[in-house]
Structures are given as structure tokens and as C-alpha cells.
């Protein structure tokens, strides 16, 4: 944008601007357009929402810039309010089955016309259909008879309360922003993160798919048991083969039906919706018929007699007359029932004991609502598998214990029944609450439709279920209720016997109900899988994100049909139901958790339109879901959790990194804040101390790390535990170095990933490296999570003249870590240190313990040997004994000390005797001091030149009125000074400089070494000789690092002492403790 411009009146703007200015302005605008199309800006991906100005915005709206010129430079990122409101007014939810608005980058794509549904058709009807499916018609009467009215009421109330609480949580999440395709998966993933979202989403997809199989199995059971038993392909040839034949029939018919349903769904969702209306009409008529039948029983109960022998219920499939014999024309004839229990039709035939001892009686199966049968049905009647259904309170005489009931026409229980098993079978009937939210991409306004439709559907169906339990118990005889397949009433559907005007109303209604629920499952499940696939968080299912041109999930539909076929091959409705319960309950549990977490975190973006929620309700719903999972089946619950856990870890390990602002990230931040405030109080106890490392890296001109092995050593030392901060300093101004800082940070983070260094990166820009390092040492970390150890590389080129400041910075860093009471580790010859891939098969880690500084020297080898690189190295500890020390006692004491520290190491005491200072030491000290003096002279002469140039420049600036001054100073810079000299002044200055330099160098060669420096050099030379003798071939040598001199004039000598001390060693780690104990013998 132009920096200089002229403000002109609006009326005159056409005349005032000249052609050149207009052309220049147009060219600049064209360049800006090009920059925007290329994605210029901060490089951060923008959400494709109405609140952010997209790159394809019409530039015509960006006014030629007069009335709002003050803001014109920000218009590329901050749109005008008028354009914002215009985009917001035209904003609509995404088409079904496409990636949600966050990831939709192709904003110019052609809009696809798809069906858009409201609350009633889009949410209420699918939920109603799925809830009022198989269980109501096929299993509810059996549950009431087995568990009794009271326990059945508890079962249904628990399940309905669970779904209602989940619906409240779901409503809060659904109204907290736009919910595109994916429904429940979208809500969980955006609230709890991609790992939870993917794991629970895939489990819920499997549950929904198997639910489709369950509905289809229910459809076939109604068809072959109640509508047309003769349509069965496989017939039972012998007694006991009925069950196997039925399962085979289900497999054949189920495969055919699933193919038909898949074709219907493939043709289009609108046809499913049209069929849904027809199917639901049948369901509603069936329910009305039940209520009408209940009312009719009050004054005219239907005639459905039940035949009993004693108190045992008989199956009326093989006889019609409920009597042992009949009399006609004064002649007694045995009935077909007699022939079923006796070995012949004669009156003196041998009959079953129980049959012979008990009378055959006939009672009404549906005595009516006023009969008082409710009292008998209040309590449970659980039984073992293969038990005979018996009427309570009916007189009977027990027969012989040895008599087998197999093959006799009794009504038997097909499975063992108990309370928790009934919960598992019943719960799938309330799992339809997500049917609407799964198709949220097809809704006009998902925020409004999902809460309203779902809660209304749950309220409606809960009333139907709870009232039906009471009405069934009040109208139908208990033995009929416990008769799962209606064998005692001529094979009629039990609930159908109650209906008015005909049982066929219920049979046909339930058949279409289960068909419709199966279609709804096959419609919702593929869209759920497509939403997960298009998110890209689970790599191996991405192929299922593709579909037809209008977004229909073709590949996902094929997979769904294939998984449905697996459920159909199982062929047992009662076996599939508890598995579905696990997957659905897990999904509902996480929906409640998501709502509770978001509410408790109080994130600014949590602003649901649905206000009738509270975190306590969500926690209650979550607890109820978890309890129901283990009530239904503890081993199924563990298996479902294991599957979800495996998917979670897979997504965490292989899935794409996604940042969705989810609640788990927010929870982590809150937990981190809480933990930081807790550890703020003081220093950790010695037992909890571990090195929290600040690694100081050097970068080259390309912002690449000079010594990558420093990070390798860090990961070997830390093994992923504790705090690691990797810091570096760029010299200059932050405004100028912003791009370089970002590049340096990316390079360092990439190297940290390669070296598996878990930690944080911090790049500081400072006018000088010295200040930058000081800032890092002082301010890196946060609260109690601050570093206590600094790790850096030895400056190898410190002796070079151009690197004068490198050793100054190093010595000052040593002083600052001491002042900050931080430990310091200096790695010498860092490029010879091993990488993380290397393995030492033998060798030693040698510790030279000269002075005690808190035990760092003992702790570091122990930590290193935890890593694979150093694991096979042995630890050796050397300590130095003086003339007055008892070396034998020292060794015993050190061994005992190590025993109490629980460290395994070889111990050796090295004796260093007093001897004369060698000529070599004297000469080395002399050379060191001469070099230091020479460096000072060179630096002094350089400083003098700089000061003289600055002085002349200042004088000339002050007297700028004289014209001759402008010619006298050409330039004045610190490194190179150019001035106008006269010939005489030049010759005099040369002679002066020459004499000064000669006298200075004469002083250098005449100096005598300082006695203190000689003694220090003597110690360094002697100690180096001892270390080389013992540890020259060690894999790593750890040494106490002596502190710098208090007199700053001897800093360069300090570097020389350290160089001599470590000369000839391959890998050296100089250790300077923080002054506090870091290792203890106490537990």
C-alpha cells in the first residue's frame, strides 16, 4: 500500500488524481490481488466461515479507499462490517457428506442441490422409527413377563433416563455452532479431540451398522414366524433342529433383504424419506391398535384360551382341543393331546407321570385390564435355559424326577434369564436417538432440529414404553408374557393378541417398522463413516470418503452392507443386541463427557443456544452409561473399551495432526495451569530432583543447528522425562529477524523430532548474543517448571582472533549459571558423541570426583546408563587423594557411600604427590600470559582507532556550518575509517603508531608469569596427566569444572586452564553443580 497519499474531497476525486497516479494505484492494487491469490499473509489456514474474509471476495467491494483510508492496509485480513453481514446472510450449512467447513478449502466449488429436511421429517421420524422398532413388538412383552412389571419399569426408566440425559448434552453441543455431516461423530471429535472422536465415531459406526442387521433379523423373524411360516426354505426334520433351521432361513432371507435395502439407499435418500412416512404410519397405527385393544379388554376381552397341564403351559401348535379325552354319544375318546403324552390312544395307555397326575385346564390368555392380573405380574420370574413356563398359584402335583420333558408339547424358555441380561437386550430399543443427528448434513437447520426432534422423540417413545409395560402387565396373563414366540396362542405374536381390531394390524405394522428402522440405519451409517474418512484422521479408511457427484457415500454404503451381512450371518437377534448396547453406550458416555468438560472449562466459545443443560446432568448421564455397560455385560464392556482404546492409540500414532480447539486440549491447559500453581511453592525435594535442562544451541547462517549431537546427548540423558527447553539466540532486532526466527524454530523443532528430544523450543532475538543467553537463563520456563541445568557445547574456536567474544560469552555464561544457582554441563568434542542409533557394547563411563558439588557427577552416569546407547558401559569413579589423606580409608568410605546410594561402580583413589613445578608448566604459563597480553594490545589499538574516528565524526557534526567539514569526513564506521589527511600529519601518525606498537610488543616478551597462574597451570597439567593415564580410552569422562576467577582480567587464562585440563580426551563432560544436593541415601 502507498505510504504517501493526498486526501481530496469526494466530489473532486475524479479530477484531482492524475493519470500517472491512477496507473500506479491500479498496478499496486493488481499486485495486492496477486499476493492475496497466492495466500499472502501470516500463513495460517483460515476457517471458511462467514466471519473471515475469503481470498475470492469481490475486489469491487474494496472501495477505492477514501472514507475508510485509515483502515485500508488491514482490509486483506479484516473485512468491512457491510461485507461481513452480506456474507453471513448468504451463509448456509454445507451439503451432506462433505468435509466440514473448517477443512473445506475449495470455496469456489459448485453448489450441489440435495434434499433439505426440517425437524419433523429429518429428526423426529427417524428417531421414532429406530426407537419403536424390534424390541417393542418382539421382546417387550417377554421382558415384562420375565422381569415383572416393577423391574421392567426400572429397566425401561433407566434406559430412557440415560438417553434423555444424553439428548440434553447432545442438544447443548449441537447448538454450539454449525453441525455439518457426521452428527454425533462431529460433536464428539470437535469437543474431545480427533483421537476420542475417531475411536468413538468408529465404534458408533459399527454399532449403527450392526443395528441395521438387528432390524433386518427382526423383520425376518416376523415374516417366518408370524406372517408366513410356510415360506421357510429350511425345514426341521427332527425334534430339536427347529432353531438351526430358523437361523439358516434368517441367513438366506437376510442376505436378500440387505441387497434390496442397499439398492434403495443407493438410489437416493429422498426415497428412503418417502418410504419412512409409509412405514411410520404403520407403526403409529400399530400403537393405536394396542391402546384400543387395552381399552376394549375392559368390557370385552378377546378370546385367546391357554391350555395348562397342572401349572405347566402347553404349546398349541400340534393340537387344538385342550382336554385329555372327549365324550360323544356316551363314548370316551382320547384327544391328540393324550397321544402326545401317552404311548397309545387307549385309555389304559402308559402316560407321562405329570400328565397322569394333573388335570388339563384352560384359562383366558388376556383376562383384561379390570381382571386384577397386574398383581400377579408385578414380580419377576427368572428361569434357567430349557425350563417350562409355569403359572404361579396354579395347583399341581409333582411327577417323577426321572421323567424327561423333552419332546413333550410344553412351552420352554430358550435362554437363561436374569436382570442384567434383560437390560442388555432391551437397551438397543432406545438407541435410535442419534438417527437424526447422524444425518445432520441433510437438515435445513441442524442447531434447531436436532435438540427439538430428538427430545420430543425420546419423550414420546418413553411414554409409550412405560405405559405399555403397565398395560401389558395389567391385561395379559403371565405365562403368555413369558412365552417369547406365542406358542401357547397358536403361534400368534403376543402383543398382537391384545390389539384391536385384529392381530394382523400389529404383525404388519411391526414388519414395516423393522424394515424402516433398517433403512434408516443403512442411510445414517455410511454418512457417519464418510465424515470420519474425509476428516483424514484414520488413514486406512480414507477411500470411503468418496461417493457420487451429489455427495452420496457409495463406497461407505458398500462397506456398511458388508458389515451388516456379518451380523446377519450371526443370525441371532438376542446375541447381537448386547454388543450393540456396548457401542451405543460408549458413544453416549462420551457425548455426556464432552458436554460436562466444555461446561466446566467455561471456554469463551461455549455458548449453546440450548440453555436447559447443566454439568451435573451430563455427569449423571455419563455415570449411568458406564454403569449400564457393566450391568449389561462386563466382558463385552471391556472388549468394547479395548477396541476403542486400540483405535485411539492408532489415531494418536498414525493419524493426522488436527487442532480443533477441543475440550481435551482445554482440559490439558487447565490441568497444566493447576499443576504449575501447585509446584510454584518452592524447590523440589532432593528425591524428586532431576535435571530440567536448558540446551543452548548455536545456529549457522542458514539457521541450521551446528552441533546436532547436543540434542542426541540430551535425549540420552533425559529419556523423555522431565523438562527440556532447547534455546538459541539470533543477533539483531526482532522486527528485522522475524522470518529468520520462524525458520530457525522450524529447523530446531524438526531436529528435535529426528533426535526424539521431547521438549520445547525457544528462540530469542537480542542485540547481542551475550544478552540473549542471559535472557534465556533468566526467563526460560514457566513458574515451577523452570530449568535447573544448562547444557552447552565447548567453544572449539575460542583461540581464533575473530572469535574474541566467544570465550567471553562462555565465561560470562558460567558465571551467570552459578549466580542463578543452576548446574552447568559443558560437552567438549560434542561432534564425537554418539548418536541415538549407536550402541556401545563395552567401555567405561569415568567420573573424576575432585570436589563435591551436590552429587551431580554421581547422578549423570546413572541417568545415561538408562539409555540404550550407554547401557552396557560400566561406571568407574576416581577421586584424588592428597599427601595428608588416607587413601585406603577414602576408598572404603567411597564404596560405602555408593552402596547407600544404590549405585554400582568401580572405585579407585588416585594419589597425587607434591612435586616441583616443571619447566613445561612454567613455559606453558608464560606462553599463555604472552598471548593474553598480545590480545589485549591488539584489542586496545583497535578500540583507540574506533574512539578517534568517533571523536572526529562528532566534532565535524557539531560544526556542520563550515563547508569544508563535509569534505573532510567521507565516512565514519567502527570497522573502517576514511579521513582526509595532510602528508605531514600522515607521516607523523605512522611513526607514532610504529613506536607505540614496538614498545608494547617489547613489554610482552619481557613479562614474568604470575605465580598464581603458574600454580593453576601446574594443577591442570598434573590432573590432565593422571586422567589421561586412567581414562584415555573411556567412552565418556565426567570432570568437575573449576569456577572462573573472581578477577575478570584472567578470563582468557581460565579458558586455557580448561583446555589443558581436558587435552587428549575424546569425549568430556565438564560438570559444575548448582550448590544443592541432588542425590540422597535416604528413601
UniProtKB/TrEMBL annotation:
Catalyses which reaction(s): K(+)(in) + chloride(in) = K(+)(out) + chloride(out)
Record flagged with keyword Protease: no
Region (Disordered): 1-51
Localization of this protein: Cell membrane
Domain SLC12A transporter C-terminal: 824-1083
Transmembrane segments: 117-140, 152-175, 196-217, 252-269, 276-295, 415-435, 455-481, 501-519, 555-573, 579-601, 613-637
Amino acid permease/ SLC12A domain location: 123-297, 412-694
InterPro entries from the UniProt entry: AA-permease/SLC12A_dom, KCL_cotranspt, SLC12_C, SLC12A_fam
Compositional bias ranges of the Basic and acidic residues kind: 14-29
Principal subcellular localization: membrane
Annotated membrane topology: Multi-pass membrane protein
Keywords from the named record: Cell membrane, Chloride, Glycoprotein, Ion transport, Membrane, Phosphoprotein, Potassium, Potassium transport, Symport, Transmembrane, Transmembrane helix, Transport
Family: Belongs to the SLC12A transporter family. K/Cl co-transporter subfamily.
Name the UniProt record assigns to this protein: Solute carrier family 12 member 7 isoform X1
